[in-house]
């Protein structure tokens, strides 16, 4: 059986299939994409460069990326992301959990059961940015399904 040989970080990049970006190893020491939270994989430098050039037309708009980042910042404010993670104890890394919940909330906003309150101009007060649920029970059910957990009464 062939042995896996360690690769030289100087000859490879880390590639994210989710958002089609490449990173140097030192830029993502945990192997998780900084833009979308998905796990990256090792790829030869030349292949990563070619894929990056070919995917420029398919890449998410910077506005879409920033919008998702704002959604993530709102729902994780004041440590709420870590609290949900501790209560639900999902079988995934925190970064992956954060990305999945962000996507869930974006879909919830699209479907109309989540609303984000954003001031018309940037504000220094975090309290000016809010998340509201029109259907809180749906959020709880979706969150539990996403995490594959059923929190106990004492945890919630």
Features:
156 residues; alpha+beta; globular; disordered C terminus; 5 strands; two-stranded antiparallel sheet; 3-stranded antiparallel beta sheet
Provide a short characterization of the protein structure.
The chain is of the alpha+beta class and 156 residues long. It has two domains: 12-58, no CATH class; 62-147, no CATH class. It is 41% helix and 13% strand.
Explained architecture:
This protein has 156 residues and is α+β, with helices and mostly antiparallel strands. It folds into 2 domains: 12-58, no CATH class; 62-147, no CATH class. The chain contains 5 helices and 5 strands. It has helices at residues 45-55, 62-75, 80-88, 94-111, 136-147, and strands at residues 12-16, 21-23, 41-44, 114-117, 130-133. The strands form 2 sheets. Strands 2-1-3 form a 3-stranded antiparallel β-sheet. Strands 4-5 form a two-stranded antiparallel sheet. The protein is globular and about 50 Å long. The protein starts with 11 loop residues before the first strand and ends in a 9-residue tail after the last helix. 13% of the residues are buried. Mean pLDDT is 83; it is low at 1-6 and 151-156.
Which percent band covers the strand fraction?
Answer: 5-15%
Number of helices: 5
What helical percentage do the residues reach?
40-55%
Largest sheet: 3 strands, antiparallel
Written as H for each helix and E for each strand, in order along the chain, the element string is EEEHHHHEEH
Q: Give the overall shape, derived from the CA principal axes.
A: globular
């Amino acid at each position: 059986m062939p042995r896996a040989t360690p690769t030289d970080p100087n000859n490879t990049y880390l590639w994210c299939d989710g958002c089609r970006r490449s990173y140097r190893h030192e830029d993502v020491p945990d192997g998780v994409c900084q833009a979308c939270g998905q796990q990256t994989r090792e790829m030869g430098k030349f292949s990563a460069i070619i894929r990056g050039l070919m995917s420029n037309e398919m890449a998410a708009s910077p506005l879409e990326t920033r919008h998702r980042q704002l959604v993530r910042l709102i729902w994780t404010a004041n440590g709420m992301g870590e609290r949900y993670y501790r209560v639900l104890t999902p079988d995934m890394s925190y970064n992956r959990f954060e990305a999945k919940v962000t996507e869930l909330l974006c879909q919830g906003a699209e479907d109309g059961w989540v609303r984000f309150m954003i001031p018309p101009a940037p504000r220094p007060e975090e309290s000016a940015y809010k998340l509201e649920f029109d259907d809180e029970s749906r959020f709880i059910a979706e969150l539990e399904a996403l995490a594959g957990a059923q929190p106990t009464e004492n945890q919630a």
